[in-house]
Design a protein that fits this description.
The protein is α/β, with parallel strands linked by helices and 229 residues long. Helix content is 32%, strand content 19%. It has 2 domains: 42 residues, no CATH class; 154 residues, Rossmann fold (3-Layer(aba) Sandwich). It is built from 7 helices and 8 strands, in the order H-H-E-H-E-E-E-H-H-E-E-H-E-E-H. Keywords: ATP-binding, Nucleotide-binding.
Length: 229
Amino acid sequence: MGGVVVGTSNKVPEDLYVNGVQRERLDTFGGALRARCEVVNVGEDENKDWRILGAQTASGLKMWFLSTEKDEFENVVDAQIGFSSSRNLTVFGRQFHVPRVSAQGVTCMFSFQQLCEESLGPANYLTLSSTFRTIIITDIPIIRLPSGKNQARRFISLVDALYEARCRVVYMEDVQLDDLFQIDVDRGTDNTDVMLAESVSLEKYRPNVISYRHSDGSEREETRAPLET
């Protein structure tokens, strides 16, 4: 008897676990993988990010703004938030403050500092993604590694939660998306720092996607409702 194995990766087999601790232990497996499996490139055009293109096609609205586009960004915020108030969510018995919430209660707004430089974790981000349909995040800086590894981990956890929940996210930051993570080459790093820097900087982050269910058991549809006006 035999079986068929199908796997996906952001790296070709020979680049798996590059710079990893005791990577030589993986060499035998990598050789067997290349010998026994056919490698198929599912992204024929490496310059296209189909997630971004798909989001633009579906909504027809811009989601990523540079700090130099502040006026355009504020127009989107005004349309989304309008007259707003704050709100507290309960996460494991603790209060989680949401500084700005739209009148309809489906859109919220945070700064990067409020989400990724405070003592927050996956539970907070999962609560956000199950409560709101649209999240607006402002003032996203360049994240330097390894000095900013805690902020990087929180930001990745946040994006992962929002992506899985199919939340719409509007960002304003200092640089283009592909330049968000930058390695601080002047600072010595240990193996853990090298692996973290590689995972978030040298390759585009591609979190897993799963179907998302609300607390009442209903499943969120793939096609999102229009933005608030």
